[in-house]
Write a structure and sequence with these properties.
By secondary structure, the chain is an all-alpha fold. Helix content is 83%, strand content 0%. The mean pLDDT is 91.
């Protein structure tokens, strides 16, 4: 026995599933976009940290009066919201660990900068910049 259904019900069901699929795919696309924007901002800040690390070394070497201001700018960039909000489920543990290492090493770098320890800074700046690169 053949069951007959109205064509309009079949079309309505098909239309409903098409709309549902489009809503789901749009939602996934928006989530991906939001995630990639945060990633791009984090990469931009990491590049800024690299440049600022070298600038701090130059300030220390040249005895620049702007050293303290540049240290504060570095600290602000390191503690920017996009970097400090890494404790979410989709951020890999390796990224969280690398950020924690950057923070810990910054405390030592900042301490050495405040003391004017140029030889130590020159010996350790490349390792710190490499850590920034690994973080990204």
């Amino acid at each position: 026995m053949i069951v007959k259904r109205p064509v309009s019900a079949s079309l309505a069901r098909a239309f409903f599933y098409i709309v549902l699929l489009s809503i789901l795919s749009t939602g996934i696309a928006l989530l991906t976009l939001a995630s990639s924007l945060r990633d791009a901002e984090a990469i931009n800040i990491a590049g800024s940290l690299r440049m600022q690390s070298y600038r701090l070394g130059y300030d220390l070497q040249s005895g620049s009066p702007q050293l303290n201001a540049h240290r504060q700018l570095f600290q602000q960039a390191l503690h920017s919201p996009v970097l400090t909000n890494l404790n979410v489920w989709y951020v890999p543990e390796a990224v969280k660990t690398r950020y924690a290492h950057l923070n810990a090493n910054w405390l030592e770098m900042n301490n050495r900068l405040s003391k004017g320890d140029l030889p130590w800074y020159q010996a350790n700046i490349n390792n710190y910049v490499n850590q920034i690169d690994l973080f990204v």
